[in-house]
Automatic annotation (TrEMBL):
It comes from the Eukaryota. The keyword GTP-binding applies. Pfam families: Ras. This is Uncharacterized protein. The gene is ga29123. It is found in: Endomembrane system. Keywords: GTP-binding, Nucleotide-binding. It comes from Eleusine coracana subsp. coracana. Belongs to the small GTPase superfamily. Rab family.
Amino acid sequence: MAVVSALAKYKLVFLGDQSVGKTSIITRFMYDKFDTTYQATIGIDFLSKTMYLEDRTVRLQLWDTAGQERFRSLIPSYIRDSSVAVVVFDVSSKLLKELVRQHFVWSLLVLANNVIYTSSHFEQRS
């Protein structure tokens, strides 16, 4: 008789300021395409993907959160029971510091810089 292993489920919540690329990262992962048009996420979008790995099957629940400031009060409810928080950020973002300081309760936190900068974008400090 074949043994059927339980399907492992993981909740990944994507957080960050608006227009840093949260939806673009998720779209690339889900559909292997990149969309150059920008459309703001309102509230939250949910996507699910089942992955078949060598020794197990996993279901990823991807939560694409809105980056607008008016939705920030909802962050604690989004990250509740999450397996991973992926913080997508612009290196000049104030939200990154706030998220890490106030909500660092995840078992795994991934910081994802989705923008490539030239040296002219950085302020040098002595």
